[in-house]
Amino acid sequence: MDISQTEIETERLRLRAWRETDLRDFYSYASIPGVGEMAGWKHHTSLEESRAALRLMISGKNIFAIVDKESGRAIGSLGFHHSWADDDPQYIDFLLTEIGYSLSNAYWGQGLMVEAVKAVIDYCFNARALEAVTCAHFIANNRSKRVIEKCGFTYVKSGKYYARQLHAIYDDSKYIMFNPKKFRVDELIKVKEN
Questions:
Q1: Whether 103 contacts 113, CB under 8 Å
Q2: What global pTM score does this model have?
Q3: Domain count, the chain
């Protein structure tokens, strides 16, 4: 999903494409141990490592920079990825995407990620007319679990996730949210029962 020309504004945030000028902001939070690890990537140990990751995000055109309106700084990311549901026969025919996110630990506990995720869900369902959005979290990542629950996702199943950058397999929980404009409640119940 190409978001390079898309901007989403919320009360406290601006979601937009990453820029080369975001390098220092990106490194500032990506270099903190524990931030990336909760999202499946190793924290950065040099500015050059962040520069390489930033260039991948810019060229991929599928990840928003989360910008704090007050400071103007990029404080996190929220992107679209291959979904666990793409490999599940029950969901394979749905037009969907998976979201993944990370946030500077200096901004944890303020409801900012819930604000960003809700805005992106609205974008997915209304601007992109997707049928569903999925997400997942490592079992130990209770912060991400709370974001997912507050946004209204439905738990589907537990599974395993291989975090390539961390060279480790994690237990995770997988969730889905269907576009309410495209599906009635009774249709969703049938999907869950199959």
A1: yes
A2: 0.91
A3: 1
